[in-house]
Every structure is written in C-alpha cells, then in structure tokens.
Amino acid sequence: MAFPLRKDQPEEKLTTADIARGQRPTPEPANPKPVVDPAGPKPVTGERQAAQMSERREEAATLFPHEEMDHLRSRWSEIQTGFVDEPRKAVEQADVLVASAMKRLAEVFADERSRLEQHWDRGDNVSTEDLRVALQRYRTFFHRLLSV
C-alpha cells in the first residue's frame, strides 16, 4: 500500500515502472503469486561465498552503472562551470539533468522489478537472496533520498 507524501493527497499505488513510463499506477492483480523457494538457499562456501556477498553488497549500494555515474558527474560539472557565464541556462540544464537522472533511476528499479516479475509469471521461484538484494537496493536508495 502506498502512502501519500502529503495528507491532502489520496493514497495511490505508484511503482517505479509507472514513473519510468510516465504513467499513472496500474491496478494490482487480483491474485498475486506467492514467492516461495521450497529448495531453500543454495549452499555456497569459501571464497566463492565471500565474492558473491561482496558483489551483492556493491550491487545494492550503486544506483547506476559506473559509466552512467561518471557521465552524470561529468555533465553536472559542465553545468556548474557554465553557471558563471549563463546562470539561467545552467539552472535550466540542471533541471533537465536531474529529471533525466530521476527517470533513469526509476527505469533501473523498474527493470529489476520486471526481471523478478518475469520469473513469477513463468511460475519460477525467486530466491529469498535475490529478493533480499532487491529490497536492500530499495532501502539504500530510500535512505539516501531522505538524507538529502
């Protein structure tokens, strides 16, 4: 259930996919499929386990692939430098860059959710670990968002 950000707004179930597509919320399916992994987690030991855990932590901590982050930072630097000569243009460009980054971020989360839903639609089980990583990414982003 979604919570309104302001008390005078009704609750709505807006997803990252809705934001990425620029659409209103889609109705929730009548019979959502449960996520169960009857086999339980696959045993992994030693160095392989440590590498997997490290990779998942890094994946959860980054919001964009590294090359996209570099491009966004570079573009921001150009905009900031341009402020001296053309402040109004710099603010307009900053707005476009922020809107673009927000849309791309919504796309990243929507793509991840879509991958999980494809497994559910095929009747596949999604491992608890995959869901934990997805939730960790949402938590990391949410805490970053609130700390701004």
Plain-language structure description:
- There is one protein chain.
- The chain is mainly alpha-helical and 148 residues long.
- It is 64% helix and 0% strand.
- It is built from five helices and no strands.
- Helix 2 runs parallel beside helix 5 (128-147).
- It is elongated, with a radius of gyration of 19 Å.
- The two termini are 24 Å apart.
- Residues 1-7 and 34-38 have low confidence and may be disordered.
Oligomeric status: single chain
Order of helices and strands: HHHHH
Give the percentage of residues in beta strands. under 5%
So how many helices? Answer: 5
- Amount of helix: 55-70%
How many β strands by DSSP? 0
Which structural class is indicated by helix and strand composition? mainly alpha
Rg estimate, integer Å: 19 Å
Main β sheet profile:
none
Mean pLDDT equals 75
> How would you describe the shape?
elongated
**Regions with little confidence, pLDDT below 50 for 5+ residues:** 1-7, 34-38
What separation lies between the terminal Cα atoms? 24 Å
Protein traits:
148 residues, mainly alpha, 5 helices, elongated, disordered N terminus
Quick recap of the structure?
This protein is 64% helix and 0% strand. It has 148 residues and is mostly helical.
